[in-house]
Structure formats: C-alpha cells, structure tokens
Specification:
Layout (H helix, E strand, L loop, with lengths): L2 H7 L40 H13 L4 E5 L2 H9 L7 E5 L4 H11 L5 E5 L4 H7 L4 E7 L11 H8 L5 E5 L4 H4 L9 E5 L13 E5 L2 H14 L5 H11 L2 H19 L5 E5 L9 H7 L6 E6 L2 H10 L4 E2 L9 E3 L11 H7 L5 E5 L5 H12 L5
Parallel strand pairs: 2-3, 2-4, 4-5, 5-6, 10-11
Antiparallel strand pairs: 1-7, 6-7, 8-9, 9-12, 11-12
C-alpha cells in the first residue's frame, strides 16, 4: 500500500458500531466494567482511550514501528521518552537541538542525574568522541532546528548499535512521508504532532514511535504512570489532519523550493539553510536517507533592521511561534524556538540575531515572494 493510500486506509477506517467514516471522539474519563474477574480493554482514559489509540496505531504504521504513543505536547513526548533513562546515564545530543529540548535536558534532566553532551552531529567523529562508558542514548534532529543541519542516520546507528546505545530522532520537520528513521535502524522516532502531522495550527500534540516491543513496554509504562497523554478531541483532530499530510507536504515542499531559489538571488539574504540546495553540506546525505527536503528553511539577512522589517511587516507569513501549518509562519529563533538557549550558546551554535526561519504553507509562492520583495526593497505592502 502506497503512502497516500495508507494515510486514508492504513488505520481504523470507520467506526464498527455505526459505520461512521471517522473515529468517534470518545469524550469520557472512565468505562463501565461487566465482570469482577476480568476487566474490559478500556478502564480509565489515562491508560487507554479509543480515539487516542487510533492515532497511535496510525502513526506507528506510517513510521513502520511496533508501537506508537500520543502525548499532550511535543515536549511531553520528548520528556516522557527521556524518562526511560536513569541517574548516572549520559546522552549525546545534536548541538542545535530545539530550544525546548535543550532546556529540559540542561535544566531538568541534569538535576535528575542524567547528563548531556552537545556536539555537532554532522560530524561522526564528534559523536564518537563524546561517547562515554555510561552513554545510553544519542538524541538527534535531522534536519535540525533551526539551521537545517543533516546527520547521517545510518552511520550513527552503526556507531551506536554495537554499544547498545539507543538512537532517538526528532522527525518533526520531515514527517514519516519524507523520512522514516526506524527503517534506517534508529530505535525511537519523535514528533511534535502540532506541526505538519496535524497541519492546521489548532492542536498541541506529541508522538513517539518505537521499533522494538521492549522499548514499547518501557515507554508505555511511563506514558501511563506519568500521564501526559493526548485527549480524545485532539486525537480526533490530529487524525483528521494526518489524512492530508501527503498533499500538504507536496505543495509546501514545492513552494519552499521556489522561494529558496528566489532568496538565493536577493542581495539582502546573506546565507540560506536548506538541505535541498546542492551546495548545502548535508545535501548528499539528505538525498540518501530522505525522500525530500521538506517545507522549512532558514536564512540570514544583511542587518537587524532588515530582519525586523521582514518579521514585523509580513502579513501572509504569520510572525509566530511554531511551524507546519497550512499558513506560512515566519519566526525568530533567537527569541522564539531557542529563547531558552543562553545568548553565548546561541552565538556558538550559529543562531544569529539576523536568522529567521520560514515554514512554507499552502499559499501561492508567488504571493509570498511578492510580499518579501516589497519588504526587502522598501515598497508598501
């Protein structure tokens, strides 16, 4: 079954009770039991809910995993997954990881005795040099947020597997349509389902998918015990958005390519970060492990004044936090996604004060380009 068909028919296609072409919203906290000796499949909605279960089965199938889990946010999915580690464990983490992940690792998990070393994950040598006897996990984003750096997942797996190190990949930018890390040998895939998977900027959602049953049991225990689960209404909305993932990603990715081509000719743009460019350092690796370059790009401008004008005058691209919606969203990593990273760390990582990130939506790219052209050249918009 091809991906587009799997999106529609790969999970629960209808309600067996009524025939409804959609999983119902089971807006309930508890379920009636019939027998003292044997409870039914569902008892309390923190543990299981049919609406959430349908989403979890769908994302597990798309990522080719054994089990999926839906959480109340992307950070809830990341934090709950990281709870499989114990005091004394050590993690190797990509350097320009999402600011929320940096914050939880450096400010919360460090207090729990789980230490992290941040490295340029485009360099296998740097990853290998950071591994210690107590290293239990490698945490990656590829392409990374916000500099779109690319990590060779197959090479990292070859490094990690003989050492029984768990490889985790935040696959939010790519989605399972464009990249499937579990097929490349990784152990856990994470998503902010808020972004492209839901795709309509109306849900906060996190997802995790595991390859092995053993890891599935460990995360299942944490999901139930910690309780940061996704509610039935948001599960329903995310399933609805998931069905159009392919057509949305196809259009947004095509438009992103058009915009990147235009940006590359603009004198006010000093650098573009997008793995679809042949000159991008990770272009060849991206082509070898993914089916596209996605709809998110970042670029640097010639001055803070130009940066401010672009952010504050954009109307078609919303100046906002987040990405992956049907509308284009332009953001400022230094004060948004990576505000939790200290200024000196941001500078070291290359997250400058003139860097902007653009998530391309479903508008006509010519209109987005015309608006940016007007702002760059001082025309009224």
């Amino acid at each position: 079954m091809k991906f587009a068909t799997q999106l529609i028919h790969g999970g629960q296609t209808h309600d067996p009770l009524t025939g409804a072409l959609g999983v119902p919203i089971y807006q309930t906290s508890t379920f009636r039991q019939q027998s003292l000796d044997q409870f039914g499949k569902y008892d309390y909605a923190r543990s299981d809910n049919p609406s959430r279960e349908a989403l979890e089965e769908a994302i597990a199938g798309l990522e080719q995993g054994s089990r999926g889990f839906a959480f109340a946010s992307g950070m809830a999915a990341i934090s709950s997954t990281l709870l499989i580690f114990s005091p004394g464990d050590h993690l190797v983490v990509c350097d320009d990881v999402y600011g929320g992940t940096y914050r939880v690792l450096s400010k919360i998990f460090s207090r729990l005795g789980i230490q992290s070393t941040f490295v340029d994950a485009t360099s296998l040598d740097q990853i290998a040099s950071a591994i210690r006897p107590e290293t239990k996990g490698i945490y990656l984003e590829t392409p990374s947020n916000p500099l779109l750096k690319v990590t060779d997942l197959r090479a990292v797996v070859e490094l990690a597997r003989p050492r029984t190190i768990i490889t985790m990949v935040d696959n939010t930018f790519m989605t399972p349509y464009l990249q499937r890390p579990l097929e490349l040998g990784c152990d856990i895939v994470l998503h902010s389902g808020t972004k492209f998977i839901n795709g309509h900027s109306d849900v906060i959602c996190g997802l995790a998918v595991v390859k092995s049953e053993e890891l599935g049991e460990r995360i299942r225990f944490i999901q139930n015990g910690f309780g940061a689960i996704l509610g039935p209404q948001d599960s329903f909305l995310t399933l609805r958005g998931l069905k159009t993932l392919k057509v949305r990603m196809d259009q947004s990715q095509t438009s992103a390519g058009t915009i990147v081509e235009w940006l590359s000719k603009q004198p006010r743009v000093t650098k573009i970060h997008y793995p679809g460019l042949p000159q991008h350092p990770g272009h060849a690796v991206q082509c070898s492990q993914a089916d596209g370059s996605g709809a998110v790009l970042s670029f640097e401008l010639d001055s803070l004044d130009t940066t401010r004008r672009l952010l504050e005058q954009s109307q078609l691209s919303a100046f906002a936090v987040s990405l992956g919606g049907v509308e284009s969203i332009i953001s400022y990593p230094a004060k948004m996604s990576h505000a939790a990273v200290p200024p000196d760390e941001r500078k070291r990582k290359g997250i400058t004060d003139t860097l902007v990130r653009l998530s391309v939506g479903l508008e006509d790219p010519d209109d987005l380009i015309a608006e940016m052209d007007g702002i760059f050249n001082g025309k009224s918009v």
